[in-house]
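Tokens help. Consider this.
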Amino acid sequence: MNIKSLLLGSAAALVAVSGARAADAVVVAEPEPAEYVRICDVYGAGYFYIPGTEICLRIGGYVRYDIGVGDVGAFTGAESNDYLDDEEQSTYYKNARFTVRTYTGQETELGTLRTYTETRFNWGNDNAYGDGLERNDQGFKGTSLNFAWMQLGGLRVGKDESAFLTFHGYLGNVINDTLVPYGGFDTNVVQYYFDFGNGFSAVASLETGAGNPFSGPGGQFQDVNPETGGVTGQDSIDSYVPYVVGGVKWTQGWGAITALGAYNSSWEEWAGKVKLDVTPMENLSLFLMVGYGTDDNIDRNFYKQWGGNWAIFGGGTYTINEKTSFNTQLSYDEDENYGIAANIAYEAVPGFVITAEVDYAHDGQFDEGYDRNWTNADDEDSIGGMLRFQRSF
């Protein structure tokens, strides 16, 4: 066999093998289907479907920076000792906060299933420095779980703020809205919300109170038992009997009327509030609220935190232009405690608001020999100011 024959034979063999392989079926692996995030517009802006589910999720929150001076309000003023001569003096109150919020929604055969959580992280100084505390150091101030509830239809359970506040919509857009306090904030709840149509709604809430009777911002006073003169910092349920809150509301285009009643089972005390909200013109909203409560067993409790039996609150918001608003609140109680708060809020760009506020408080019990107000001052009249920067997302 010569070289030419060998080459021709090899070529023929290669062609045959190639043809046989070409006849075999080619198997190509199917790509995995890609599931892109889908927008969910059922519950408002910012929601998206969690991949592989029908649950809509929204993640939000805010970053905040507060600068406070003076002696009044839950977020203003701080005390320290001078590093050189050790004399007591005032300084800034500073607080930086990062808050993360989550919202979920899903339609079920029993109605809409929703959840809401809010967690806050704080870093700054303490504005409540007193005797024996020499320095006003900066540092991590802790983490708080402010909300963690779930709601199916009208039934809500979990960590919330008391329906005694949330159902009537708080008291205006000032920062320090508790110069005269109007009820406890943080509590565990089992609630049911009713919607009767035509603007009528109602709430029934079983609550547990909190360890500090004033569990909102600040919380610097204690309850006083009028019979013994003793103080207590406890105001949560002390048996299987819960605290009870009930309320009704009528909402129309002009505003709303809300009536609420609360029973503190630990101290066997009652409290009630009636609030009127009106919108006389497009850029003006006003409110007026009257509260009344008993103090037979304890002067102040989780629901009646104002001094004496009655208190009155009023204020409103005037929208100057699309970026700027003026907000104010005035408050007064039977013990002659009163407060005035006013601010200008300016939205520099969407989601970024700068607020400058001035606060004044009068302690009606200052001459009694102990401070029953929520100020840091050594006088019956106190004034303070605050500058807040907040980016919400």
User: Anything to note?
Assistant: The CA atoms of residues 78 and 91 lie 5 Å apart. Residues 3-23 form the longest helix (21 residues). The two ends are 86 Å apart (CA to CA). The helical segments are 3-23, 163-166.
